[in-house]
Fold this protein.
Amino acid sequence: MTESPLGEEREVRSFGGIAVDGAPVAYIISLAGVVTVLAFIPLSVVLGGGSSFPMSQGVYPLVGWILGPVAGALSSSIGALVGALVAPYTTSVIWVTITSAIVGSFTAGAMVDGGPRRHWWIPLAALFTLSYLLYAGRAVVQNGVELLPALLGSFIDWSALLLFILPTRTLAARWIGSSDMRRVATGLFLGTWIAAGLSHLTASTVMYFIINWPNPVWMMMAPMAPVEHAVRSLIGAVVGSGVIAGMRAAGLVKPRWAMY
């Protein structure tokens, strides 16, 4: 006679590997490598910071949309650190570069249309508003920069902040999650303008405490900075469309907080 097994029934589960905030570590490492590689490619000169900016700035938000805010920030910070060490010609201050990468990915990952993290944008908006006041506001009030040059020279910063506060934040998120790749590309361009713009705002605020550039520099930035930022956004749209299309076609497991 066969006896029935005794004891509490146990449940067997299969785990797919180590994850950080719902994103597989393999994804984090892979995208950090992408950021590092793109850090080798300088695009143009940022007048305020005094150095060129790397192509990797265009994909910081993309990493956040793929991995989520926490894992995306971790991946971009690793890639930015390695990139700054191996390609220092695209970096002026390493820790500012890393902070910019973290902000770009975290902000993008927080641009959700719903779910438990849908309110994360509120403290971020307050923080970025304070940052703008410490940047352009301080330039006008404390350093004597004229209002018009300050507004024109910081166009990408305040426009990104405004678009982040308005429903365009969630509109970009919905388009990135669309099945229509044309909408995905549009959402990536708009979302990159927002997230990378706020990343730029954070870096500029810090750099302005180090280098108080005068009124003529603000006027020189006015026509150049939007063009440079459009290039960042175009990079995000082109590279992001290819990456997202490839990940969808391959049927890869989506990280928990992925938006694509």
Summary: The chain has one domain: 16-250. The first strand starts at residue 19 and ends at 20.
